[in-house]
Design goal:
The structure holds two protein chains of two kinds. By secondary structure, chain A is mainly α. Helices cover 74% and strands 1% of the residues of chain A. Chain B has a domain of 228 residues. Chain B is 72% helix and 3% strand. Chain B is built from 15 helices and two strands. Chain B has a two-stranded antiparallel ribbon. The chains are: A mainly alpha, B mainly alpha. The interface between A and B is large, with 55 and 53 residues.
Chain lengths: 356, 370
Amino acid sequence: MITSFIHRAVMQGIPLLFGSTGEIITEKSGNLNLGIPGIMYVGGISGVIGAFLYEQSLDTPQDANAFFAIIIPLLSCMIGSLLMGLIYSFLTTTLRANQNVTGLALTTFGVGFGNFFGGSLIKLTESEMPSITLSTTSKFFSKTLPIDDIVNSIFNFLCQTFPSIAEHTENYLWIKNGLLGFGEIFLSYSFLAYSAIVIALLASFTLKRTRTGLQLRAVGENPATADAAGINVNRYKYLATCIGSVIAGLGGLYYVMDYANGIWSNDAFGDRGWLAIALVIFAVWKPNLSIIGSILFGGLFIVHNYIPNLSVNTQEIFKMLPYVVTIIVLVVVSLRKKRENQNPASLGLSYFREER
Amino acid sequence: MENHEKHIREPFFHIAKRDTVVWWLAWLIRIASVAAALIVCAIVTVLLTGENPIQVYITMIDGAIGTERRIWGLLQNTAMLLCVSLAVTPAFKMKFWNIGAEGQVLVGGLATAACMILFGDKLPLIVLMPLIIAASIVAGAVWALIPAIFKAKWNTNETLFTLMMNYIAIQLVSFFTYQWSVPKGSGQIGVINQDTRAGWLPEIGDNDYLINILIVAALTFAMYVYLKYSKHGYEISVVGESENTARYIGINVKKVIIRTMLLSGAICGIAGLLLVSGTDHTITRDTAAGRGFTAIMVSWLAKFNPLVMIFTALLIVFLEKGAIEISTIFGLNAAFSEIITGIIIFFIIGSEFFINYTIKFRKSKGGAAQ
């Protein structure tokens, strides 16, 4: 039970991880993108549209080709979220609009876009349920390693090398269950889940250890100084925001294609986008911490399903947990006032060279 | 040497800040941007429906103001959105990014519903009504006060704090809807006190909504005076422009932050009261219906002026109602209205650039050489 809890927590956490990694990269350039919830919706629905068109073009589901089934939704998801990132960057960086208002408008637009096309596709398929099912493509997205086979072969290997294992039944069960548990916790996810972790680690490394990361942080902390040092402020803001949006959009894709097994229904994605933004604070602007944070949040999100004998209304109280924890972290971070734990200094402000 | 100087490239254009803009030019730019947005929306609609765009806009107008009932619905919705916008305005003017209006409205509504359910048949109306009003105002104010205290004392990020408070409020409402659900366990409260109408705001004449509209109209005027002519209003603008200046001239910034957020939350509480006691007579998780977020755009588009907000709120609600009508008539999804609203707001946000900045083009080659 505990292994299945951790497994579900990770599955819940991955969309949040994508979202928060994207938002951290964006915020490091000084852009507070409150449009992330909308971008994740657009990422999800764009992937769904891609997958839908691909499935429509097939004669029978057996014709599906793994390469196309993955690359078409993936690309359409990335293009969709990239366009959203471009809208945000154009308005806030080029036209220097207020970031909060632009972000909220982007969220309204993105959620509307997702539900509109979701609703239209549902109508097209004339299904009786208010959802679209894309099981053919989803199969490729949620493909995992064959854990049972791996565990069995490792186990057989162990038995052959150490014949004493097979003789004692208690040890036998203990080792086998241990291996299965290990497999379920660490090896039972699809490629998108692992790429979320790899992307977070890469982002962490880039921000901390590379020249690009240093310059990006300079832009977020003090754009005027960065500009004086010859850094192209606008280019960094555009790049960081667009890359961040694409990463966040993948969270939407992961949610539909893997977590929900290819079933899109309107508003199912819920408030995960806002949680991803909260997670940025939780992780104090460090993508590697956000890996742990997102899994923890994923766990808090579903913990009410794993506590026995909870009445329906107490469950509702338990669903507050992720938000309460975020507030506590927020307060603790602000109380400690450590400089490296604060947000980028110019966060939320647009930069105009001629303004002093 | 001279030759070298000629090769310094002057950029094709550069951007400069305008000092001031004549008011008519500013409004011309805004109207032009709305017009451009409507053209883009028309193109989008035509692509999706294949109908004549003029026909589409006629449908839209019909959906918003086609019948007397629709006009009242439009006014009621505008009043509600305006009420929440009024609530967030003083906080925003102070640059306190309160995006928790949604939650503040909800707890205000929850307090109203609680009084109606618990005391509806126990207290006489003359005690019940003041109790409901006080409870909703206090609930909204407390919900805003918590992040305000942390902001004032420890500079805790208010955007995220207020955002999280929204979800706590939603879950609280969820909890109580299960607690009080009729029939038990259904998760829905249904219309509260349907027979006795205890705790319902009174009807004026024949109209259910008129009292809401009048209350919000009075609030709008009061807020305009408060922000423009009172000492508090002045302090809010100074804190918003520069906290250091405010401190320098002896304004107690912490006090202003807490006081303003109390006011902001209290008005949200009133909005909750009007929604539960004056409109729906029930409460669900969706009672606030995203108004807390839309209100921010309404307030910002009006440059924090309560009187202008009447028009921006009306514009947004008009679009919403119209787009809903388009989607029903042409068989589109109701989320269509959010796309249209989004596009129009993008354009208006973008147009502010042309009001605040001007683009200066490079002078012609011959002119530069002389």
